[in-house]
Design a protein that fits this description.
By secondary structure, this protein is mainly beta. About 0% of the residues lie in helices and about 50% in strands. The chain is globular.
Length: about 110
């Protein structure tokens, strides 16, 4: 997967506020990576005394016009500014400690 990781990239990002939370929707261009081999999640650096915020995003529809592009969605608390959270892609492997054991991470920004 390492050689194909550079093909993965993020497209448009939309953020809406719903019921006191932010709803993030992001398009991900998978290239030759299968959706089951990657986890798209929202990430935020930790506040003092907290763990980093990591929330898996749900795989939604395939973008019909473009092959290999999928939309993902997920929620984050609205107690911080919306740009505090960043979608990212990490390899989906059981028991894997990212980035300590496998340094492949793709960031939306």
């Amino acid at each position: 997967m390492s050689s194909r990781w550079r093909d993965l990239r993020f497209g448009s990002l939309r953020i809406d506020r719903q019921n006191g939370k932010y709803l993030y929707r992001v398009e991900v261009h998978h290239g030759s990576i299968k959706p089951g081999d990657v986890q798209i999640e929202l990430y935020a650096n930790p506040q003092p005394g907290e763990l980093p915020f990591r929330e898996p995003m749900a795989l939604g529809r395939a973008v019909v016009e473009t092959r290999g592009v999928y939309e993902y969605s997920g929620f984050a608390p609205a107690n911080r500014p919306p740009d505090y959270y960043t979608p990212r892609a990490v390899p989906r492997r059981r028991g894997l400690s990212v980035p300590l054991e496998f340094a492949l991470i793709a960031w939306q920004k």
